[in-house]
Design goal:
Number of strands: 13
Strand order of the largest sheet: 1-2-3-9-6-4
Helix content: 40-55%
Order of helices and strands: EHHEEHEHHHEHHHHHHHEEEEHHEEEE
Structural class: alpha+beta
Largest sheet: 6 strands, mixed
Oligomer: single chain
Radius of gyration: 22 Å
Length: 455
């Protein structure tokens, strides 16, 4: 890949050289273009080159599309790149949890949370994942019309509260769900709108809504935490593990830290998996060939029984369906970092304070890394005959030291749910294109209605 300098604006610059992005406005920079459609804006920047300068308000930014540079950004986070300061809406929901924390605080929290989601623990949660999906399958009937978005949200919420809280529902699961919906919407609005540039102290209607939603989340999580603290028996759920975890100095997480990490795990185990499954059903409905290949594997591996954790390794095509769904509709659609002194990418120095951006949405749809990038083709993930995929051309869970701790939990959960439901049913999603909306996660722009067809 050659390095180009000084290209014409309509000629992409591929390689490790900075090129200018679209001209912005005074004070606002490129924020209006970004705010109208962040996903399209990222694709526009990718079309300019692999390292493109732009402005988010007055903030200096660089957008990177080359996987080598993306890998450097991910692996150098905590050393030469910082987590950026996130908006009021984001902090109101996630507090100072693992996603937000920096430096020593982040390392301490990671060491306390990581044991709860190790492979051994994920295996212990697999039965809950499968049995919850079976309950939903038993409730469906041939010819029934369902809202997949609502069904998957309810299912993954049930799994989240059973594995995280160790109960069937939090104090008020409907209130929790509604609050999370508001959080999703307001985080997306603030991030892509003028609210991203406003000081924290400026009141806006959106900030009022997010604070009310956060108060509901705090209340519901607080009730369940209190119930756990009052319990005399050990529980196998994630929250109990967090409550008993101790760091190197023998200290436990504070009540506020427990709240932040619980909400972080809840979002990771509920919102992200729910979104992935909705997009998977949408893609399967639009691709009969893939749906047939999936059901062939399920019939061959499972026969007439429900899946268990040990089946996960054998369900390679099911895994490929989930991976390909995450390629086309990545739940987390961007990563950012702020350059520290001495930061470099692709051999180029990055001025301290520059905000570096990259987008899973944009990179995952780059034809250089994925031939026929718009095609839903799970075969590209075949462990023997699939495509050779650059390590950081596909990064739905991030990477490097801050890679999502719930990666295996999410993959196992998605595959087992898909296996339970697709073994019994096909879902015919109503005609029409469904567009992605970037909020906290990548969500469909409308209800996803489908007819259940018994196999």
């Amino acid at each position: 890949m050659s390095t180009q300098t000084g290209p014409a604006l309509d000629t992409p610059s591929r390689g490790h050289a900075f090129v200018p992005g679209p001209k912005g406005l005074p004070l606002l920079g490129n924020l209006p273009q970004f705010g109208r459609n962040p996903l399209a804006f990222f694709e526009l920047l990718r079309g300019r080159g692999d390292m493109v300068r732009w402005r988010f308000g007055r903030n200096r930014c660089v957008f990177i599309s080359d996987p080598d540079c993306i890998g450097e950004l991910l692996t150098e986070t905590e050393r030469t790149f910082d987590q950026p300061a996130l908006g009021v809406a984001f902090r109101a929901v996630l507090g100072n949890g693992l996603i937000v924390a920096r430096g020593r605080d982040w390392r301490r929290k990671r060491s306390l949370v990581q044991p709860s989601v190790r492979p051994k623990q994920v295996k212990s949660y697999a039965a809950t994942m499968a049995s919850s999906a079976v309950e939903l399958a038993d409730a469906w009937s041939d010819g029934q019309r369902v809202d997949i978005k609502r069904e998957m949200a309810a299912l993954t919420q049930k799994i989240a509260v059973r594995t995280i809280f160790g109960v069937d529902t939090p104090a008020d699961s409907e209130a929790m769900g509604r609050a999370m919906d508001v959080a999703q919407l307001e985080i997306g609005k603030e991030f892509a709108g003028i609210g991203a540039l406003l000081p924290d102290w400026v009141p806006t209607p959106g900030r009022t809504r997010i604070k009310k939603a956060a108060a509901v989340i705090d209340s519901e999580v607080g009730r369940v935490v209190a119930r756990h603290r009052d319990g005399e028996t050990e529980r196998p759920d994630l929250l109990s593990r967090l409550l008993t975890a101790v760091d190197e100095s023998g200290e436990r997480l504070s009540d506020e830290e427990i709240r932040d990490e619980t909400v972080t795990l809840y979002i990771g185990g509920h919102e992200t998996t729910s979104s992935t499954l909705v997009w998977a059903w949408y893609l399967l409905s639009r691709n009969p060939r893939v749906r047939a290949a999936l059901t062939e594997e399920l019939d061959r591996v499972l026969g007439d029984r429900e899946p268990v954790f040990e089946d996960y390794a054998q369900l390679t095509y099911s895994q490929a369906v989930v991976k390909e769904t995450l390629r086309l509709y990545p739940t987390i659609w961007l990563i950012t970092g702020v350059a520290k002194e001495g930061a470099r990418l692709g051999g180029q120095p990055i001025e301290e304070g520059t905000r570096v951006w990259s987008s899973q949405w944009s990179t995952h749809r780059d034809a250089r890394w994925f031939p026929e990038p718009e095609e839903f083709r799970p075969e590209r993930w075949d462990p023997e005959d699939g495509d050779e995929i650059h390590e950081y051309a596909w990064f739905p869970f991030g990477g490097g030291p801050r890679v999502c701790l719930g990666t295996r939990f999410a993959m196992v959960e998605s595959v087992l749910i898909l296996a339970v439901l697709a073994r019994r049913f096909e879902l015919d999603v109503e005609p029409g294109v469904i567009e992605p909306v970037p909020s906290l996660t990548l969500q469909p722009d409308r209800d996803v209605l489908a007819t259940v067809r018994a196999r």
